[in-house]
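Comment thread on ticket #2218

A.B. wrote:
> Attaching the input chain for the structure job we discussed in standup.
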Amino acid sequence: MTQPSTLTPAQLAAFERDGFLALETLVPPEDLVPIEEEYEQLIDRLAKELFHKGKISQTYADLAFGARYGAMIAEYPDLANFVNISLPLLNEGIDPDTFQMHAGAAVFNLMRHPKVLDVVQDLVGPEIYCSPVQQMRMKPPANTLHSAVAGHSNVGATTWHQDIVALFDEADDTHQITVWLAITDATIENGCLTSVPASHREGPKVHCSNLAIAREPQVPDSVMDGREGTPLPVQKGGAVLFHKMNVHRALPNLSDGLRWSMDLRYHPTGQASGRPAFPGFVARSKSNPASEQRDSAAWAATWEAARQKILSGQHKGRLFEDTRWNDAAVC
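C.D. wrote:
> Ran it. Output below, let me know if you need it in another format.
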């Protein structure tokens, strides 16, 4: 571990002890304005396109952003793919029309935000790789969700899991850190994270198939044995850092507004991401600054190239792991 530049010794010790650390504030709220504006434009464009294609009954132009997104996804559940920051995790049944993602400049800039990279550097060192294992989680009120997305962790419920579950074994020794960044306030009412202290020291858990969505295996209740996590509310611009072996979930959004967050993941450059079909990039390098990716358009192009390789069949093999930690005797 490098000498800390941002996290205090007490915070570093808490992360080592618990496997997570909540930071009430990290990114200044004013630095989130570009992503709010980018997504307002994205939703407006998608509303017009989907209405023109007959996928939604109206553009909902009179609604505020959160309500508009909620109304649109209630009619068209596949909207979740178009606003996510990673391609859909599908090992089969890929539909080119919905095998989509968003790779905007504001997303890229948040991934490289100096305050985010500073805390990551405290945990993994100065050679930082931005993993492609990333998600945009935009969660409307639970009581408005279409049944098709109610179990999708980017939109509805997030069940107990460890992040290692979806990675190939190439990443078993990768020192992956998650930065769960709040774009809106994350409260107990609207579905903040909750995490089991010290669970990262217990090794991989059995993960069973999720009946709501096959690509999201979950730690079953029998394994949790009644254990409850620690709720981790943070303000807009705050973050939760956690270890890839930490057991966590998100509470349901019982509020009347949108709960919005990003999962950003990092590890030391040179280590495997565990998702080789998807592209990452060097976010910071003390030894070789010229290796850093600073061009958002070039980053977006790597994702489009990956998408085309998968759709064309040039990529051989599965996109993600979903059965490795299954145990038939438990599940």
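A.B. wrote:
> Thanks. Noting for the ticket: The chain has a mean pLDDT of 95.
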